[in-house]
Design a protein that fits this description.
With 302 residues, this protein is an alpha/beta fold. The chain has nine helices and 13 strands. The protein has a domain at 3-161 and 200-228 and 269-283: NAD(P)-binding Rossmann-like Domain (Rossmann fold). The longest helix has 22 residues, at 74-95.
């Protein structure tokens, strides 16, 4: 039986990796800073020795790192996305147990790209903010470890959506607002919805993670995980409002007033040809299904 050590097991993506792994009969050792009963308490940023101890104790076939900092000041970002990854790759080198490392990167590493041209893994990264800069630094640490012999892959995840989307994301924030205004014709105020993003269902992301875990040969060092489609954020909002059966009105503020991890990026679309070739993975869940299932989990009356 395949066994994985899942770091960040209680997060948005980690939860879905855990659930998907159960469907495949993959044994999961859960680790996080606030674990569920039976899980390991592990903070990657606290030092490499506890990470090596956890790897030795669980003897996994793969370590999946879904942990990281998505918000906070620069120090928080550096701690969660750079120092933590440095500790992880040092632990991997020290523990003496062979395994595959699957680390989650971010489309924010690419920054602004040429509009209309899907961004491939070979594109030069030009992150615009601290989140993207620190995620890129983490990716480079994993790539360097892979060049030194570690079996490792970075999955650059574009914009995950679907059940469990946190309030720090547009979909999660809107779902909470629609729940608050359910049964009314209230107004929901959002930032500009002009930007285009590659929106990929979080369950498809989980499937990509497990495809990387189960691949018989080491995958390429970096692989994009996206839908392969550029979707205007206004379309996401409309889909979720329809799923909620809401009569709420949406008011957009001026352009640039919608802060986020990729603020300043007008358009992104993933080139997913490499992951199709390397892992046989393709996305299967469309935007309307993602928004419907997000709303159903929120539990609001339709």
């Amino acid at each position: 039986m395949t066994r994985i050590l899942l770091i960040g097991a209680n997060g948005f993506i980690g939860r879905h990796v855990r659930e998907r792994a159960a469907q495949f009969g993959i044994e999961v050792a859960e680790a996080s800073r606030a674990p569920r009963p039976g899980g390991l308490r592990l903070d990657l940023a606290a030092g490499w020795e506890p990470v090596a101890t956890a790897i030795r104790a669980t003897a996994p076939d793969a370590v999946v790192n879904c942990a990281g900092a998505t918000a906070g000041d620069v120090g928080t970002m550096v701690g969660g996305n750079v120092v933590a990854v440095a500790h992880l790759v040092r632990a991997a080198a020290a523990c003496g147990h062979p395994f595959r490392l699957v680390h989650l990167g971010s489309a924010a590493e690419y920054g602004e790209v040429v509009r209309g041209v899907p961004v491939a893994e070979t594109a030069p990264p030009r992150p615009l903010a601290a989140y993207g800069v620190t995620k890129l630094a983490g990716t480079e640490l994993v790539r360097a470890a892979a060049a030194s012999g570690l079996d490792a892959v970075v999955l650059r995840v574009f914009n995950p959506v679907g059940p469990g989307a946190p309030a720090t994301t547009l979909a999660g924030r809107l779902a909470a607002e629609l729940r608050r205004t359910a049964g009314t014709d209230g107004t929901v105020r959002l930032g500009s919805l002009d930007a285009y993003r590659d929106l990929v269902d979080v369950r498809d992301v989980a499937a990509a993670v497990l495809a990387a875990v189960r691949a018989p040969a080491p995958p390429p060092a970096v692989l994009n995980v996206g839908s392969g489609r550029a979707t205007q954020l206004r379309e996401l909002v409309g889909s979720l409002i329809r799923a909620a059966g809401s009569s709420a009105r949406v008011t957009e503020t001026a352009p640039g007033a919608n802060p986020g991890r990729s603020s300043g990026v007008a358009w992104q679309r993933a080139d997913i040809g490499a992951i199709r070739w390397a892992l046989g993975w393709t996305p299967a869940i469309g935007l309307d299904a993602s928004m419907r299932d997000l709303w159903n989990e929120v539990g609001c009356p339709v």
